[in-house]
Design goal:
Oligomer: single chain
Strand order of the largest sheet: 1-2-6-5-4-3-7-8-9
Mean pLDDT: 92
Structural class: alpha/beta
Number of strands: 12
CATH architecture of the largest domain: 3-Layer(aba) Sandwich
Radius of gyration: 21 Å
Number of domains: 3
């Protein structure tokens, strides 16, 4: 029995992400989790007997149908132990133990911005989403969305004209939702990726989408909201982004448009007002003139924390823990600074969670 089958069985259980990761770490692998005794499972993670017995029963669950469905859409299994597991997702509170991926996840996808909004946008909202998405993609950032009608679709379509996009589904990869976007999902997968934490065959039940939203924000450096009611799903994503320590941005709209209420509330609460892609780049600390893909130079106006990190790096790899100690910065500030410096092309990450100067 292959390890991939064990991972699919684990995903099929739909345990909480933290619990699934904890169990795999405790027992050593997904197969060991499924073969563990009921008492051992209960003791390992304070599981109820009912949950422990479900896990035991899953060891003999057939998964041939799910594996065939993955093959049919040319998808594969990526686990939190794999090298191509999205780096940004590792930082959130509850990363999925298993992802189903159609397409390719790349290292540079860590430089991503999510664009979300209403399913019924105005022409202004649609145009703004497309312009900002296209400009971000042209500058090398990956645009993340939920593949929904409206703003999400506009952002994905614009991004794949000049760059990469990632769509996060709230259903199985073989159950495209909305169905009319099945062609778009195929195009996204050809140049970027379509991902889901749900096994093939999973239907787009309403309760899955708020859960899915944490992955949209978790994959990104920040979330841009373009037109949304105060109660819209995009506002849920923005709230999760704030909890995850991600930036939140919003595009203002006409005061007589109900769809402006969500972005305007976010702006009143401290979100950055965005009118163009450059506003996001500047907020991330990326000088607009440095976004052309050529050999970078060190800007003269870097913030103190970025200067401090650059000064302790050389052409010799330095582990992130040593950088934290030498710079006397918090781990959170250090990690965000390293991300921005890498986005600027001033440093490079090398194997062993270490960094070197690029210029």
């Amino acid at each position: 029995m292959s390890e991939i089958e064990h991972w699919v069985r684990l995903a099929k259980l739909e345990l909480s992400p933290k619990k699934a990761v904890s169990l795999v770490d405790h027992f050593g692998g997904p197969g060991e989790v499924l073969q563990a005794g009921t008492d051992a499972l209960m003791e390992a993670d304070r599981l109820s007997r009912r949950t422990a017995e479900r896990i035991r029963a899953a060891a003999s669950e057939p998964v041939d149908e799910e594996l065939r469905a993955l093959d049919e859409v040319n998808a594969r299994v990526v686990t939190f132990r794999d090298g191509d597991y999205p780096a940004n997702l590792r930082q959130i509170y509850d990363p999925p133990a298993v992802l189903f991926v159609r397409g390719e996840i790349r290292e540079e996808d860590r430089f991503a911005v999510a664009i979300v909004g209403t399913r019924r946008p105005s022409e202004y909202g649609r145009s703004m989403a497309m312009k900002i998405s296209r400009d971000l993609a042209a500058r090398g950032l990956c645009v993340v969305g939920g593949g929904a009608r409206g703003i999400d679709t506009a952002a994905h379509m614009a991004a794949i004209q000049d760059g990469r996009s990632i769509a996060v589904m709230g259903s199985g990869l073989d159950v495209p939702y909305p169905y009319e976007n099945r062609g778009l999902f195929k195009r996204i997968a050809e140049t970027g990726a379509v991902i889901s934490e749900y096994i093939p065959g999973t239907q787009p039940d309403a309760y899955r989408f708020p859960v899915r939203n944490r992955l949209i924000s978790g994959l990104s450096l920040g979330v841009l909201v373009v037109e949304s009611l105060v109660t819209g799903g995009a506002m849920i994503t923005a709230g999760v982004a704030g909890d995850q320590g991600r930036d939140v941005w919003a595009v203002p709209g006409a005061t007589d448009n109900d769809l402006s209420e969500g972005p305007h509330r976010l702006i009143r609460d401290g979100a950055k007002l965005v009118e163009r892609a450059e506003d996001i780049l500047e907020e991330l600390g990326v000088p607009v003139e440095s976004t052309e893909r050529q050999r970078p130079t060190v800007p003269s106006d870097l913030p103190p924390e970025q200067i401090a990190v650059l000064e302790v790096l050389s052409l010799h790899p330095k582990h992130v823990d040593d950088i934290i100690l030498e710079c006397k910065l918090t781990p959170a500030v250090t990690n965000s600074t390293l991300t921005l410096l890498e986005l600027l092309g001033l440093i490079r990450r090398v194997p062993g969670n270490a960094y070197v100067r690029a210029v």
